[in-house]
C-alpha cells in the first residue's frame, strides 16, 4: 500500500492518522459512556474507520479504553483547571465548577464502568486520581476559609460530590428531573451539603 | 420415601419445609447481596439443603429472587413501619429511621442489582415502591411541617436519600469510612440536605 501510493506526502498521511485517532477517541467516548460493553467493531463503524485501522492505532480493547480514559481525564482536567476558580470564594467556585463540568465528570464516571471490566484497578485509580484531587483541593480550601463544614470527613464530602452528580445524571435520563433543572438542583444540593448548618 | 417413613406426623414435615424455606431465603439474601451473580447451587449449599429441595420450593432462579425481594421488602417495611416515627418531628424521625434501617435499605438495594439481571422491570418496581413511598411520605410530612426544604423537588430528595445510603455503605466497605462513624455521617449529611438553608 505504501509503495502503490508513494506520492502522498508524509505530513498528509500523519494528518490522516491524527484525524482517525481523534474520530476513534470521540466515537469510543460516546459509545462506551452510553454502553460500557460497546464492541470495538461498533466503535470503528461509528468512527468511520475500518477495524484494521483502529487496531493499527490501538492494538487491543484495553489499549483503546486506556486511551479513552486518558482523553476523558484530560478533558475533565482542562475544565477543572481554571485559574479563575482559585481566585473566587470556594462556594462560588464550587457552583461554577458544577455548571461547567458536571456532564464531563459524569461521562468520565461512565467510562470507568467500562474500564472496570478490563483494566487493572491500580491503572484505573491513577486515571481517577487527578480530577478527584482537584475537587478535594477545592473543598479543602473552603474548609480552611471557613466557608465549608469541617464536621464531616473530607473524603466523604468528595464521595458525595461524585455521587450527587451521578444521581442527577440518572434522574435526568429517566426523565424524573427536567434537563433545565439539573444545574440548579445540583448546585443547591451540593452547597447545602458542604455548608455547615448555622 | 413417604411410604418408608409413614410415622413422621404431617406438622413435623411442614415444620421441616418452613425451616428449609427460611434457611434458603436467609442464605439467598446473604449470598445475592454480596454477589448478585451467586449461583443457585451455592445458595442451596449455604442453606444446608440439596438443590432438589431448593427447586421443590422455588422452581426457578427467578422465583427464588422474587421471594428474596419480597422477604427483603417485608423486612425493610417492618423496620420503616414504626408508628412511633409518625409521632416525632420529621427530622427526629429521619434520624431514627437512618439509625434503624440504613443497613436493611442498603442490602435491599444490592438485591435489586441481582433482580435487575433476571426480572421484568415492572415487577422490580412493584417491590421497590413500598419502602420508597414510606421515605417519600416522611420527607413530605417534614416539608408540610416546615422542617424540610421545599426549594428542591420531592423525588430528587428521595433519590439522594438512597444514593447517600449507598455511598456510605461503599465507603464503609472500602475502609475509607470507619464503621463506627457511618450513622453519624449519614444522619448529619441527610439532615443538612433536607433542611433548607436559613
Automatic annotation (TrEMBL), chains A, B:
DNA-binding feature ranges: 39-58
Tagged with keyword DNA-binding: yes
Keyword DNA-binding: yes
Signal peptide per UniProt: none
Span of domain HTH tetR-type: 18-76
The organism's place on the tree of life at top rank: Bacteria
Keywords tagged on the record: DNA-binding, Transcription, Transcription regulation
Pfam families, A to Z: TetR_N
PANTHER family in the cross-refs: HTH-TYPE TRANSCRIPTIONAL REGULATOR BETI, HTH-TYPE TRANSCRIPTIONAL REGULATOR RUTR
UniProt protein name: TetR family transcriptional regulator
Amino acid at each position: 500500500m505504501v509503495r502503490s501510493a508513494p506520492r502522498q506526502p508524509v505530513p498528509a498521511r500523519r494528518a490522516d492518522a491524527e484525524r482517525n485517532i481523534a474520530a476513534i477517541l470521540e466515537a469510543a467516548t460516546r459509545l462506551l459512556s452510553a454502553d460500557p460493553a460497546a464492541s470495538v467493531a461498533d466503535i470503528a463503524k461509528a468512527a468511520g474507520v475500518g477495524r484494521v485501522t483502529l487496531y493499527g492505532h490501538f492494538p487491543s480493547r484495553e489499549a483503546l479504553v486506556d486511551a479513552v480514559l486518558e482523553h476523558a481525564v484530560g478533558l475533565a482536567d482542562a475544565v477543572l483547571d481554571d485559574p479563575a476558580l482559585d481566585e473566587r470564594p470556594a462556594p462560588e467556585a464550587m457552583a461554577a465548577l458544577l455548571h461547567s463540568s458536571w456532564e464531563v465528570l459524569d461521562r468520565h464516571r461512565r467510562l470507568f464502568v467500562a474500564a472496570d471490566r478490563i483494566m487493572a484497578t491500580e491503572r484505573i485509580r491513577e486515571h481517577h486520581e487527578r480530577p478527584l484531587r482537584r475537587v478535594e483541593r477545592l473543598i479543602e480550601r473552603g474548609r480552611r476559609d471557613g466557608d465549608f463544614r469541617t464536621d464531616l470527613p473530607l473524603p466523604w464530602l468528595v464521595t458525595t460530590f461524585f455521587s450527587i452528580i451521578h444521581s442527577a445524571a440518572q434522574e435526568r435520563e429517566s426523565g424524573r428531573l427536567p434537563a433545565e433543572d439539573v444545574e440548579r438542583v445540583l448546585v443547591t444540593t451540593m452547597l447545602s451539603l458542604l455548608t455547615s448548618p448555622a
